[in-house]
Structures are given as C-alpha cells and as structure tokens.
Design goal:
The chain has 5 helices and 5 strands; from the N terminus they run H-E-H-E-E-E-E-H-H-H. It is α/β, with parallel strands linked by helices. Helices cover 36% and strands 14% of the residues.
Length: 218
C-alpha cells in the first residue's frame, strides 16, 4: 500500500503574501500517502521534515495576510476546493471538524488561498505535497477514497497542512494513523493529543509573528 506524505525539493524561505498556487503536474512527484498498512511505520525523518515544511509555508502565507489585523489571536487559513468538486462535501466537512476541534487556527473557503485541493487518479493514493518554495496542495485520489472513508482521508491530509505528521501505528481513534487501522476505520476526528498539538503549533506561529512585528516597530 502507500507510504507517507510530502515532497520537498529545496529549503523553505519565502514569505508568502499571495497564497500557495501550484497544480499537481507542476510539483515534484510526492511520496505515496494514507493507505500504508504496516503497523510499525511512522514516516521517515525526511518525510516528517517535508510535512513540517508544508505546514510552515501555509502558516507564513496565512500570517502574512493577517498582518493588517495583528491583534486577532486566531489565524484564518484559506483553502480553494474548486479543483476538487467531487470532494467538495468531504472538504467542507473536514474543515468543520478541524474548526470545532482547535481554537488557534480556523479553515475557511475562499479566494487568494493559502493551499488548494485537487482530485484525480494516482496509483500512489492521496497526499499533501510541497515543492519547497511555498507552493503546495492536497491531492485526493478517486480509488483510495472509495476504499477508505473519504472524510477521514480528507481530514487526515488536512492535518498535514496544520502541522501533524503520520503515525500509522496508531489506533483508529488517532486521525493521523491514516490507513494503518485498515479500511474499516471511518473515524474522521483528531484525538485530544492531535488537537492539542495543532493549537500549540499555531500558538507558536502567532507568538513568532508578534515578535517579528515588535522588532519591526523598533
């Protein structure tokens, strides 16, 4: 079955003001995702670093657009689902799940997106991908979304955008265990530890952003 997540071809270092725009064809080939079933696999260090790069790119994009309202404590991350119409309902549901689970970051649909969803056929399955230059997307594979619960797949991939790595050895109650528990697992909700981690990551992002503003003001 498939293994883990994103592709990073260069170091991240570009502050983004206009969102993340890339089509699947324009990025390097990602590592396969979600459906891996060998219970002991948790993702390599390189793959975990790639996930973090995607998260950081999205965070920089969202925070740059929030510069006009620096006192707002919640970061709003904008996504574009127009290129994944088959999964519009699952994407919306995934956003609702995450929005009700965490407080420091909220997902919303709109233009000038921080990341985008795409759909299609890919033998590697669904994945989140970045090229290392601040451009990234989530790809949702048709066949895999028929095999596994589609909302769980979408919420899992969105978890990478928010900064969470894969942990395929985890139980079904752990969203980032992905396809590890098998196709019978339909849980689309992050557990307590996953919720806490996302809030910690985005709280740190806000703190770093506020610190940067203070230095600029001086």
């Amino acid at each position: 079955m498939n293994r883990s997540v994103t592709v990073l071809s260069a170091a991240l270092g570009v502050a983004l003001a206009a969102g993340l725009a890339a089509t699947p064809a324009s990025a390097a080939s990602p590592a396969p995702e979600f459906g891996y079933t060998a219970g002991s696999y948790s993702g390599s260090a390189a793959e975990q670093a790639d996930i973090q790069a995607f998260h950081q790119a999205v965070m920089k994009s969202a925070l740059a657009k929030q510069a006009a309202n620096p006192f707002i404590q919640t970061v709003y991350v904008t996504y574009d689902a127009s290129s994944a119409p088959t999964f519009r309902t699952q994407i919306s549901r995934s956003a609702q799940i995450w929005n009700s689970s965490v407080r420091n970051v909220q997902l919303r649909s709109g233009s000038n997106a921080d990341f985008r969803y795409y759909e299609g056929n890919d033998s590697r399955g669904s994945y989140a991908s970045t090229d290392g230059h601040g451009r990234g997307y989530i790809f949702l594979d048709y066949r895999q979304n028929q095999q596994y619960d589609s909302t769980r797949v979408t919420a899992h991939e969105t978890g990478h955008v928010l900064g969470l790595p894969d942990h395929y050895s985890g139980p079904c109650s752990e969203l980032m265990s992905g396809g590890g528990p098998g196709t019978s697992c339909t849980n689309p909700y992050p557990n307590t530890n996953e919720k806490r981690r996302v809030d910690q990551l985005w709280a740190n992002g806000l703190a770093a952003f506020d610190k940067g503003l203070t230095k600029t003001a001086r």
